Amino acid sequence: MAEFKEADAEQLHQEDVDIKGGDGGSHTLDPEESQPAKEDVSSASSTVVKSEALVGDSDAKSSITTSDRHISIQTKLEGLEGLTDLNGAGRKACPLCPEEKFKACYSHKLRRHLQNLHWKVYAEFEGQRMCICHLPCRQLKPSPNGDQAPGRLGAHYHCVVCSVTIARKTDMISHLKRHVNKGETEASYLGSSDVSFEEPAPSGLAFEIMKELGTNVQLMPNHTTPQKTDTYFNRKMKTNRQLVFCSLAVLAEERNPLDCLDAFGATGIMGLQWAKHLRNAVKVTITDVNEACVKMIRENCQLNHIRVEGSRGSSRVPDGGAGGGVDGMTIAAVEVAKMDANVIMHLRPFDYIHLDPFGTAVNYLDSAFRNVRNLGIISVTSTDTSSLYSKSLNVTLRHYGSNIVRTEYYKELAARMVLATVARSAARCNKGIEVLLAVALEHFVLVVVRVLRGPTQADESAKRIRQLIHCQWCEERVFLKQGSMVEENLYRQLPCHCHGSMPGKTAVELGPLWSGPLFNTGFLRRMLFAAVQHSMDDIQPLVKTLICESECTTLKSSVHGTAALTNQVECGVVIKVQKVDECNTSDHSGKRKTGDEPGNVMKKLKSDASLEHPAFYYSIHRHSIRGMNMPKLNKFLQYLTEAGFRVSRTHFDPTGVRTDATLDQFKAVLTKYSVPTYTNSSATQNPEETLRVVE
């Protein structure tokens, strides 16, 4: 019986070979091939290696490089069948299953297996089928008894975008949706007609050339995944990079040349933008602790015709570049060094330091304030939004030493918490800070501070760090008054009366937080001028909002300014900047003038600082009255102004209102100008009017 089945199988296989042969004539089995003892039964791993070679030969004509694509990702059934030689004689193993799961068989049975299992069980993305794979690609966790999981649990799919392995099909679909939301598709790194690529890297990956603010940088295929790449790049941080650039441009107008440090280079795009647009006004140093990042930064320098200085004072051509071709076209020079950020900030002084690590920057603040020059600027970008926005309170307490809760003003709470940490680090080095800018958006918190040397300045900054009392019922808040004496009842400092009308404890103590202003109006106006000058249209509305917020005024009253500032029209935008004779503090030779003494600059800084804006803001939707239609936000701002309060919108919350009114006063004005919502019950109260309408 077994011999009969074997003979039938050989006959079916012979028919398949004859059909595939076509005009090529009949093909007879070799006697040696028909012997079961000499059949070519290979293991799953060796079959996969051979199939990868076949795939490379079949897709050689394609314009998209698929060297890093798994063999289970195919576009046509012929490509899946081409993973193994179905026309050959003998038994064949499945290229996507191990031998213990699917034993080697003849071509007709293997073809049905590929069609009915692997080709039909799939997840599709942009025309690519991610067929189910049973190979041991995943590291399964052993059971408590020490045994491995069953073989059926090893089935998985390979993502076409990031090559990650996912077991469930529904999880793979959700994973692909996240790629689409982030703008990460297969075409973003496998090539397209409108994106230029360099030669493939030694690992077989293609570089993408991305242009931002006139600067070209190479990006790795997995540049959006920090866990899988060294040269991380986030496109959503473009606003952050432009704000930092404008702050540096303002400082370059005060004095030059400046020693600038981009402590976490990654791709080096930020430092390259500084050098390419500010030219001789800055001396840029880009550092990174990773060798791959340093190599890519040097290649990006060559791509932008920027000379690389390996060490201070010694210039050399970037690695891989031609000798005279690059030097003859250089437009600027940067220093690229493989060094830890803490080390280089301890060794050398800088005028401008930008810290943008992946996560929190608290580990680098002490080193940054150690050697920064007087009246220099330090910008800190924090991307640990989970701890800053009250999602991981234990991490918040560990990194920032602050106790916070989720509030309606949580973004401003995060900015003030970072500033308090920065002020404490500066005070340990006998330095004070002046806050120039504090921005908290969806993905990051950016603070820009000016460094003021001296113990007196340090003491003044330390006094700005206070605790905050927050009412959990109405969300009223107030900073604790200065003093070392213990008050009998802290609830008396709150303007609300929730403690007397509600049972139990109604308020919490948050902090320590920065209680001073978050903006410098004069500095923001010069940043707006720099944004217009360098054609940064994306951040101009944001900077205008920051100017109005710093003055606590509406946009109309902010545009028509005082006589101390001159109006200029640039690209159709009305801006106010200081007069030329006040801002021009540098020679054409690059040396600082003798009149640029610390005392004179301090006087100018005091003139830039206007009346402090009120702390925090109220959300109009959070405090709306049930059954009442609220007025429009701009109308409500006008009503508050007519009531005698300072008001402005805030960038922290699109529905927030920054005002010096208390919460009770805020609600009183909101209630006064709110209109009752029309209901059916109100119509029945006036029967005479209802009859008139019916008639």
Automatic annotation (TrEMBL):
InterPro entries: SAM-dependent_MTases_sf (IPR029063), Trm1 (IPR002905), tRNA_met_Trm1_C (IPR042296), Znf_C2H2_type (IPR013087)
GO biological process, one term: tRNA N2-guanine methylation
Region (Disordered) location: 1-50
Domain C2H2-type residues, every copy: 157-184
Example of a GO MF term: zinc ion binding
Stretches with biased composition (Basic and acidic residues): 1-21
GO cellular component entries: nucleolus
Pfam families named in the record: TRM (PF02005)
Keywords: Isopeptide bond, Metal-binding, Methyltransferase, Nucleus, Phosphoprotein, RNA-binding, S-adenosyl-L-methionine, Transferase, tRNA processing, tRNA-binding, Ubl conjugation, Zinc, Zinc-finger
Keyword Transmembrane in annotation: no
Compartment(s) where it occurs, according to its Swiss-Prot or TrEMBL record: Nucleus, Nucleolus
PROSITE patterns, sorted: SAM_MT_TRM1 (PS51626), ZINC_FINGER_C2H2_1 (PS00028), ZINC_FINGER_C2H2_2 (PS50157)
Record's catalysed reaction(s): guanosine(27) in tRNA(Tyr) + 2 S-adenosyl-L-methionine = N(2)-dimethylguanosine(27) in tRNA(Tyr) + 2 S-adenosyl-L-homocysteine + 2 H(+)
Family statement drawn from the similarity comment of this UniProt entry: Belongs to the class I-like SAM-binding methyltransferase superfamily. Trm1 family.
Name of the molecule in the record: tRNA (guanine(27)-N(2))-dimethyltransferase
